[in-house]
Automatic annotation (TrEMBL):
<dbReference type="InterPro" id="IPR050904">
    <property type="entry name" value="Adhesion/Biosynth-related"/>
</dbReference>
<feature type="domain" description="FAS1">
    <location>
        <begin position="35"/>
        <end position="179"/>
    </location>
</feature>
<dbReference type="InterPro" id="IPR000782">
    <property type="entry name" value="FAS1_domain"/>
</dbReference>
<keyword id="KW-0732">Signal</keyword>
<dbReference type="Pfam" id="PF02469">
    <property type="entry name" value="Fasciclin"/>
</dbReference>
<feature type="signal peptide">
    <location>
        <begin position="1"/>
        <end position="22"/>
    </location>
</feature>
<dbReference type="InterPro" id="IPR036378">
    <property type="entry name" value="FAS1_dom_sf"/>
</dbReference>
<protein>
    <submittedName>
        <fullName>Fasciclin domain-containing protein</fullName>
    </submittedName>
</protein>
Length: 182
């Protein structure tokens, strides 16, 4: 009887346990917890060390730790490596903080837009939709096959490699290229 009660309690505890882990995704070798904010998660991703360093250099940490919600299109280290040699080193210099901030906030949209929300925007229009970025620019979302693409104001393209990485203050979509405003 005692064993039966223990087993019943264990099963009840498991059944009632929070399902937060069901939404946890792995990015850059680290778990991204939906209970943590964008910065708390991003600092653990080995694929986003350049982005985190740039966010720190631009002074955007307090903003991305705030309530939001935000949709962040997060370029990987590999995405930053596609830029011309020396670009990142130049951008993180204090005298280029304004340009760096504009580029980083071009990757952020106010509100929480899931991949399903982005697909819906694309399907209800002409096969593409415009997003207003925090920097004041526009990103175009397009679908091609099973992928969602982002096109920047200069015609550069990126696609979402990992979608719907939920955060306590928004959502991150990992992208494979740095998007550039005009």
């Amino acid at each position: 009887m005692k064993k039966l009660i223990i087993v019943a309690l264990a099963l009840a505890t498991f059944a009632l346990a929070p399902k937060a882990n069901a939404q946890t995704k792995m990015v850059g070798g680290a778990a991204m917890y939906p209970t943590k904010n964008i910065v708390e998660n991003a600092v653990n991703s080995k694929d986003h060390t350049t982005l985190v360093a740039a966010v720190k250099a631009a002074g955007l940490v307090p903003t991305l730790e705030s309530a939001g919600p935000f949709t962040v299109f997060a370029p990987t280290n590999e995405a930053f490596n596609k830029l011309p040699a020396g670009t990142v080193d130049n951008l993180v210099k204090p005298e280029n903080k304004t340009a760096l901030t504009k580029i980083l906030t071009y990757h952020v949209v106010a509100g929480k837009l899931s991949a399903a929300d982005l697909w819906a925007k694309v399907k209800t229009g002409t096969g593409k939709a415009e997003l207003n970025t925090v920097s004041g620019g526009k990103l175009t979302v397009m679908a091609k096959g099973k992928k969602l693409y982002l096109v920047d104001e200069k015609g550069g393209k990126s696609w979402i490699t990992i979608a719907d990485v939920n955060q306590s203050n928004g959502v991150i979509h990992v992208v494979n290229a740095v998007l550039l405003p005009n």
